[in-house]
Amino acid sequence: MKLISLLLASILIPLNTMSQTPPNYNESKVPALHLPDPFVSEKGKLIHTVEDWEKTRRPEIFRLFESEVYGQLPKDFEAISFEVVKENANPFSQIADLEEVNITVGRNGKSHTIRINFFLPKPQKGPFPVILLINYLPNYPDGKLVDEAFWPVRELIQRGLATASFHVETVAPDDAKTYQNGIISTLYPEQIGKSDGLKAFGAWGWAAMRAMDYLEQHPRIDSKKSVLVGHSRTGKTALWTSANDPRWAITYANESGCGGAALSKRKFGETIEAINTRFPHWFADNFLKYNGKEESLPLDQHLLPGLIAPRAVYYSSAREDRWADPKGEYLGIQLGSRIASEIYGKKAVFEKEFEEFEGPVHLESVGYHIREGAHDLTWEDWRIFLEFVEKNLD
Ligand code: GTR
C-alpha cells in the first residue's frame, strides 16, 4: 500500500508540475540568498537577549508565519472529553497496552471527535516518555492499526517509550475539495474564507495539541518528555504545531522539504507555486501571493526552528529526495539553530557546510542526519533520531 503510494507520488510529481516552471536541480542556478535577519526587529532594533527575543522578535516572526504561510491555529474551545474504546485487536499485546481513545471537543454547540491509538509498555507502570506520530498514509483496508515500517511501535516500546498516533483524516481530510469537512466547518467555521484562516496543516496541528491534552493528564505518561514526529507533509505540520504549543520537548520533521525545513528562496526542487498548486488546502491563502515570487517573502524557513527554541528540533533528509531539497533543509536548521545557540546559549552550532559533513550531527537541542535513498520515513531514520532523543530528553 505504502510502496504503491510512494511510487505514484514519484510518478505524479513531474506530470503535475509540467504546466509550471520545471523544477531546478542545478545548484549553480540557485539565486543569491537574501534572508531576513532573526536578530534585527522590524523596527531595526538589535536582538541580543532572551527578553528581546521572546517579547519582540519571536512574536513578529510568529505572526508572519501565521499570516503569510500556515494560517491561524485557533486555541479556544469549550469542552473536551476522552473515552477509551475497544474496537481493534492489540497487535503487540505481549509487550504493550493499547488505548484507542476518542477525543471529543465541543465549541459553539457543535462537537467533533478525533481518534488516537496509543501504546504503553507493559507490565511497567511508567511514567513513560511519549512519542506522537502524525499519520497521513492511506488507511489500511484491513483495519490494522500500524504500518511498522513507518511507525515502529515494537522498537519504541522495547526502548521504554510510549507511543501514539492519529490519522489526519479524522481531523481534516487531506483533500483540496473536502478538507473543511472536519473540525474546520464544524468547530471553526468563521475561519473559512479568511486569507490567513485555518487550513489543513493548522487543523492537524490542532489535533496534535488535543492528543497532548490527553497525554498530559495520563498518569502513566511523563508529558515533559514528549516528542512530536512527522514525515513530509506532517513534518511541516509538526514544526508549525510546536511553534504554537510549547508542550513538546522534541520536534522531529523528517524530509519535510518545501514549506517545512527547506529554504523557499532557494527555489530548488519543489517551489511554492508547485506546492500550492498540488495542495491548495495545506497553507493559508496568503501563501499563494508568493507563487513564483519567493524573493518577496518577508521570511524564510530558517526562522522556524527559532520559534521552537530552546526546545529541541531535529531534521533529516534523504540523498535522492531532491524534490525536498536536502541542502535547503540543512541550511534551514544550520541557520535556524542560531537562536538556540546565540540567544539561549546552547551548544548548537553546525560547524560544517552541507557538502563537507557526513553526519549525523547531534548537538544540544538541535540535530540533523542525511541518509542514502529516497523519500520515506524508514527505520534508519528512527534509529538515528532515537540516539538524539536519548541525549536530549533528560
Ligand atoms: C510531496 C510534496 C511534498 C511532501 C510530500 C508528502 O509530493 O510535494 O511537499 O509533503 O509529498 O507529504 O508526501
From TrEMBL:
Reply yes or no: does the keyword Signal apply.
yes
- Per its UniProt record, what InterPro entries does this chain match? AB_hydrolase_fold, GCE-like_dom
Occurrences of domain 4-O-methyl-glucuronoyl methylesterase-like (ranges):
103-334
Instruction: Tell me one Pfam family matched here.
Output: GCE_fung
Q: Which residues belong to the signal peptide in this entry?
A: 1-19
UniProt GO MF annotations = carboxylic ester hydrolase activity
- UniProt keywords, alphabetically: Hydrolase, Serine esterase, Signal
Record's protein name: 4-O-methyl-glucuronoyl methylesterase-like domain-containing protein
